[in-house]
Each structure stands twice: as structure tokens, then as C-alpha cells.
Amino acid sequence: MPNRVGALLAAPSQSSGAAQSRQHGQEADNTARTRGRSKQRPYGFFVGYNPLMPATATPKKPAPPKKPRKPEFSPTRLRSFLSCPMMYRLDYVDKVGKFYHRARAGFTFGSTLHQALQTFHEDGGSAVVSAPELVAKMETVWQSQGYESAAHEADHKVEAARILETYHAASEARAEETRPFLIEKMLKWDMGPFVLTGRIDRIDEHLSDGALEIVDYKSGRMGVTEADVKSALAMSVYQLLAKRNNPDRRVYATIHALRGGVTASASYTDEELLELEEDLRGIGITILEKDFEAVRPVPLPDVCPWCDFLPLCTRAWKREGRDYVEELALKIPE
Ligand code: SF4
């Protein structure tokens, strides 16, 4: 007698065959039903079913390759390169700034005031926001990094409140003459091989003649002169950007020295702006063509003592046996 397993394998029982054929029959029925449904419902019931896509939709063409973005140069980047190419290399090529830049009270203080003033103008200025509300806003955006002690921070908070009260009164006085044209906005201008950029604190439009006044807040300054405005690289770049983006308007620039509550303004003629544009293009091209791998730190008495990268550069100078203390006229504590 054949063993049972062998028999089962060799001769499937009738009931098993019937089950198989029922299964095949069901599959055939299901296929037919599915086909039927496909005809009735054009979108079908498939994985990846998308009711927004008709069954006859042709596959999307692949998007054309994106053009590489042009490099962007802001006044901060340009000033960094002009101050010291090694500083530029460390910040923007090697990108090691995050390991060396330290929080500073002055920077934090300025950033807090900028934020409070941005919100003040966005909310409608002195017509809508009272001086106490502006001071209260400052307290909600207050940043604590960089202060030497709690007392140092508390003094700065009192000073910030005083600055904002003065600012509010000045803002009220000119509310009839101007309206905000833009607040905290990045302007750009294509310079050919690169794009010139600048983040502007505020531009006011003068209602009498439509002139655009670029306003830049300086949180640490007591005073400012027309010559300061005229010689500031950032103010020149902002004027160029504002004029190129609004060629039919008169444009001028103002620095608002927040601590002193005073302002000074200056403007460039069209010829001066053309010259400036050519100079900036030249600087940008020099940066683009620079071999930064070959750039080495050179002691700069007017820059290095205030530079966060000084510890890094002094290590290089020590290895070279360079007398950087003498070259920089550094005062080493006894
Ligand atoms: S320490 Fe001096 S040389 Fe070094 S990056 Fe700063 S400014 Fe340049």
C-alpha cells in the first residue's frame, strides 16, 4: 500500500481538485468584475488612486534642470572681504564662524531694539501703538545673551525703554509727513556675475513728493553726521538697491542713532550711484576670482584686536614665529 503522504501527493482527491477549480473560477470572476468596475469608474480602485488625476492623464514631463543660483553679496560680506580676506575666508569659505563668534551685549541689545521697532511699524506705528505698549513689546522680545551680569542686563533694559520712548515721540512727530513703504525687507539687484543684496530696516515714503527715505537704526550711537551716512558702505548699497528697484523715485538714506535720538541723512547723485555700482561689481568679481586656499592671516592693527578669529590666527603666527604682539601693538596683561 502506498504511504498516505505519497498517495496524497500523487493523486489529489476530488474534493481538493474541486476546491482548486472553485478558486480559479473566483479569480476569473473577480478579474471580470474588476474589469467591469474599471469601465464604470474611470479612476479605478488601485494603490496610488488619485481622484484628481483622470485615468487618461499622461505622465508629467520631468522639470528642466534648475539654473545654478548666482552668488549673493551683502554689505556685511563685502565689508568682511575689504577688512580682511582671511576673515572672509573663515566666515564664508571655510564656514567656521560658528565656533568663534561670541555673543556680545551690543549685538543682542541692537537685535532686541530692531525686533521691537519692526513690530511697532508693522502694527501701525504711533497711531496704533502707544509708548508703554512699545516698551512692553520690547520686554517680550528681550534677549539675554552676551550681558556680563544680571545688573548689566537690567541697566540695558532701562536704557532700551528710554530709547523707545524717545523713538515713539519722534515717530509721532513725523507721522503726518511719511508712511512706511517697506519694513525689514531684503532688496536684490542683479549685478551680472553675482546678486547684490541688502536687508533694509525701513523705507519711508514722503507724502509730499514720493521720495523714498531709507532708515537704518544704530542702537549703540549717540550721534551721527551726514559724512557718516555718506561714507557707510551699507548705506551706499541700500541706496543703490532702492534706486535700481524704484528708478522713478528720489532716494536718500538716514541713520537713526537710537541712543542719542538723532538722525542724519545723505544722498548719492545718479553719477555717484553709477560709479558705486561699478566699484561694487569690481569687488564682487575680485571675491569670485580669489584663490581663498592661498589666503593667509596678516596682522592688521586696526582690525585684528576686535576680531573673533584672533585666537585662530595667533596660533598660525606662533607657528611661523611671527612677532604679532609687536605688529598689532597688542597690550598683553602683566
Ligand atoms: S585676526 Fe586679523 S588676520 Fe585673522 S581673520 Fe581676524 S582680522 Fe583677519
CATH architecture of the domain at 75-289: Alpha-Beta Complex
Outline type: globular
CATH class of the domain at 75-289: Alpha Beta
Low-confidence stretches: 1-49
Mean pLDDT: 86
Strand-residue proportion: 5-15%
Helix tally equals 13
Estimated radius of gyration: 34 Å
Q: What is the CATH topology descriptor of the domain at 75-289?
A: Lambda Exonuclease, Chain A
Please report the distance between the alpha carbons of the first and last residues.
Answer: 110 Å
Structural class: alpha/beta
Explain the overall architecture:
This protein is an alpha/beta fold and 334 residues long. The chain has a domain at 75-289: Lambda Exonuclease, Chain A. The chain is built from 13 helices and six strands. It has helices at 4-10, 14-40, 75-83, 85-93, 97-100, 105-122, 131-140, 150-173, 226-231, 233-245, 270-289, 310-320, 324-328, and strands spanning 72-73, 178-190, 195-206, 212-218, 251-257, 262-266. Strands 1, 2, 3, 4, 5 and 6 form a six-stranded mixed β-sheet that branches. The model is unreliable at 1-49 (pLDDT under 50). Iron/sulfur cluster (SF4) binds at residues 84, 86-87, 90, 297-298, 300, 303-304, 307, 309-310, 313.
